[in-house]
Amino acid sequence: MIKWLKRKKRDADLPPGQEQQEPVTETPTGGEETGGPAAAGDMPPAAPVAAALAEQALAAEAAAPVAVEPQAVAVDEPAAEPEAVPAPDRPRFFRRLRERLSKTRQALGSNLDRLFLGHKTIDLDLLDQLEELLVTADLGVETSLELIERTRERVRRRELTDPARLKAHLKAEMLALLTAAVSPVPEVTAKPHVVMVIGVNGVGKTTTIAKLAHHDTQQGLKVLLVAADTFRAAAVEQLEIWGQRVGVPVIKQKTGADPAAVVFDGLQAAQARGMDKVYIDTAGRLHTKVNLMEELKKVRRTAEKKITGAPHEVLLVLDATTGQNAISQARLFHEAIGVTGIVMTKLDGTAKGGVALGVVKETGLPISFIGVGEQMDDLRPFDPEAYLEAIVG
Ligand SMILES: Nc1nc2c(ncn2[C@@H]2O[C@H](COP(=O)(O)OP(=O)(O)OP(=O)(O)O)[C@@H](O)[C@H]2O)c(=O)[nH]1
Ligand SMILES: [Mg+2]
């Protein structure tokens, strides 16, 4: 166990005395278009996806009645911790996020509270238990160790002595870790702005595209979807249905067609119609299958050839419920395709939400969005502070 590996060093470093305490229309090359509204007139310039969603979230927040819903409080959270209960005037946006991430908060935040309440001093035993708790909450071994190391260092320098201050310290360290990887939102000047969405099977690529397209259209942007998952039976139809629901056109070919050819058609159609945004849906694939990754590279090369600078974004969708495997997925997809941002889905259904920290720490890739449910508004731009507030408390 890791704690044993580190114990010796801790014993040496801790302050004295603490050592032992342990729709169908023509397309140029044969692709089909399905669904979607007729072309509108002049549209506002394309905005970065994250920025647009953030604006919308803020607008919704401002418009939303505050403190109408009953507040969800995890039953096993300690009553003594005032921060564990949302303030009555906390904006609805944050309250909902908190509700959706309650499983992780119970696994992480509530257990941290218990741990800190049970100790009067920061000793080896506390640090060992803390390490175990962080690993259990799926932060990953490397990330957990680093957080513990930093804590131990501050304890050694006597900057941190009171367990009651440990939570604030940990949150600050986690925030530093997350914000270190946040890259500035790219300025979107290209028209169309092309976003390729990739990931293993069933992680939520197609529904994420629908959510993004929904938000973009609400911003007045002209969006087109490209059905480049020609592999899985019914994948094309699934995207078509989403296109109809959201009201955006879908460029498709038959199942079994070359995905690169569909992308070529899609980008040609997007250019011809003055689209602001294009989302390319790709087939889910095992990150370990070389030939499938080669196919994805070909899709990328086709986009690059058709439109200079495309794809402008490559979003890798990771399912939070898969835990640590998400880290190796991120590494392999990034090596093969080049990822610009991560979408972490299904954070609502898991106690493993700490994995977001591990992914950022171990890959250096920023998280662009998080998925917290199956509704259209359940995709949020990633806000590290709000996320930490929701899972740590
Ligand atoms: N609870 C929850 N479910 C989600 C979220 N995102 C996606 N899903 C669900 O995950 C399931 C799979 O979603 P898809 O979008 O079809 O996944 P995919 O990656 O396109 O799958 P393949 O095309 O088969 O590779 C669907 O039932 C979605 O509703 C989320 O944030 N929370
Ligand atoms: Mg899909």
Describe the structure.
- The chain is an alpha/beta fold and 393 residues long.
- 47% of the residues lie in helices and 11% in strands.
- The protein has helices at 2-13, 49-63, 92-100, 102-107, 109-117, 124-136, 141-156, 166-180, 205-218, 235-246, 259-272, 290-306, 325-337, 355-363, 384-392; strands at residues 32-34, 193-198, 223-228, 250-252, 277-282, 313-319, 341-345, 367-371, 379-381.
- A 9-stranded mixed sheet has the order 1-4-3-5-2-6-7-8-9, sandwiched between helices.
- Helix 14 links the parallel strand 7 (341-345) and strand 8 (367-371).
- The longest helix is centred in the last third of the chain and has 17 residues, at 290-306.
- The chain is elongated and about 65 Å long.
- The site of guanosine-5'-triphosphate has 21 residues, from helix 9.
Give the SSE map:
Blueprint: H1 2-13, E1 32-34, H2 49-63, H3 92-100, H4 102-107, H5 109-117, H6 124-136, H7 141-156, H8 166-180, E2 193-198, H9 205-218, E3 223-228, H10 235-246, E4 250-252, H11 259-272, E5 277-282, H12 290-306, E6 313-319, H13 325-337, E7 341-345, H14 355-363, E8 367-371, E9 379-381, H15 384-392
Parallel strand pairs: 2-5, 2-6, 3-4, 3-5, 6-7, 7-8
Antiparallel strand pairs: 1-4, 8-9
Bound molecules: guanosine-5'-triphosphate (GTP) and magnesium ion.
Q: In which range does the helix fraction lie?
A: 40-55%
Main sheet characteristics: 9 strands, mixed
**Structural class by helix and strand composition:** alpha/beta
Determine Rg (CA atoms, Å): 23 Å
Give the overall pLDDT as a whole number. Answer: 81
Number of helices: 15
Query: Uncertain segments of ≥5 residues (pLDDT<50)?
Result: 1-31, 35-89
Choose one word for the global shape.
elongated
Ligand inventory reads: guanosine-5'-triphosphate, magnesium ion
- Biggest sheet strand line-up: 1-4-3-5-2-6-7-8-9
- Beta-strand content: 5-15%
Series of secondary-structure elements, N-terminal to C-terminal: HEHHHHHHHEHEHEHEHEHEHEEH
Instruction: Report the end-to-end length measured between terminal Cα atoms.
Output: 28 Å
Number of strands: 9
